[in-house]
Amino acid sequence: xxxxxxxxxxxxxxxxxxxxxxxxxxxxxxxxxxxxxxxxxxxxxxxxxxxxxxxxxxxxxxxxxxxxxxxxxxxxxxxxxxxxxxxxxxxxxxxxxxxxxxxxxxxxxxxxxxxxxxxxxxxxxxxxxxxxxxxxxxxxxxxxxxxxxxxxxxxxxxxxxxxxxxxxxxxxxxxxxxxxxxxxxxxxxxxxxxxxxxxxxxxxxxxxxxxxxxxxxxxxxxxxxxxxxxxxxxxxxxxxxxxxxxxxxxxxxxxxxxxxxxxxxxxxxxx
Length: 271
Ligand SMILES: Cc1cc2nc3c(=O)[nH]c(=O)nc-3n(C[C@H](O)[C@H](O)[C@H](O)COP(=O)(O)OP(=O)(O)OC[C@H]3O[C@@H](n4cnc5c(N)ncnc54)[C@H](O)[C@@H]3O)c2cc1C
Ligand code: FES
Known about the structure:
The structure is a single chain. By secondary structure, this protein is an alpha/beta fold. It has six helices and 15 strands. The strands form three sheets. It has a seven-stranded mixed sheet with strand order 10-9-8-7-11-12-15, sandwiched between helices. The longest helix is centred in the middle third of the chain and has 13 residues. The N and C termini lie far apart (39 Å). The site of FE2/S2 (inorganic) cluster (FES) has 12 residues, from loops.
């Protein structure tokens, strides 16, 4: 039996550039059985460099998966310099997942901002693989500019099976953009969901999740039906070091996906 707290070697089989500073890495574990669920994460790193928590951005096979990573610091900057065929180390899969089982048969509203679409993408893949098991599904996705939209080609294929509403903060002069501008909250009114039989999954910057959650409550969603994915600085990933502690909760073990009910009002002012 594999010990999930020990790093295992993964080979980078493909690297795709998504935006200026974000790339998607396809990883293969060479036969090791891995069964991540949408919403869970790996501690990804390299000896002597460090580790960072990174969500699965695709979980279609047991030993092959993807991570979509923005290069912002020590570990992610190191990963950005790696090439196809290079190795990297992962520990996991860790944490809670989006409650797709609970949402079966119901409508789902997915709301993502920026790189927050990465942890939502495996949810969409699961829904598409069992499309008849869910009601209306709508994705609202916001990015800074059109060039910052992730998974651009794939989004076109999602539109065949789910509704997709896109918005950006700004459109540079001369850039063609056929969708909305402004905050994702502005698009909530355009969605057709029966809030009593719907779940909302929200992932993005904390301030965005706060405003989106409020907008969802105004539309009639119960907090127990709104799920958010929280980001905290992490070290161990397994509820041992306290780095990610948020009141009584460990974001690495009890989260990162929480029902709004479980995190509202906790001490560090979140949500
Ligand atoms: C559950 C989870 C899932 C995630 N999934 C993804 C994902 O799918 N894709 C993705 O791109 N990112 C994801 N992240 C975010 C990612 O883990 C962070 O960006 C991580 O810090 C990157 O590590 P690093 O070593 O490259 O950056 P760091 O060197 O840690 O720096 C990251 C940023 O934090 C700042 N910083 C450094 N130290 C501190 C400190 N002590 N206090 C406050 N700020 C500091 C730096 O200035 C820099 O801006 C996720 C985070 C969590 C918790
Ligand atoms: S990262 Fe160590 S307790 Fe969560």
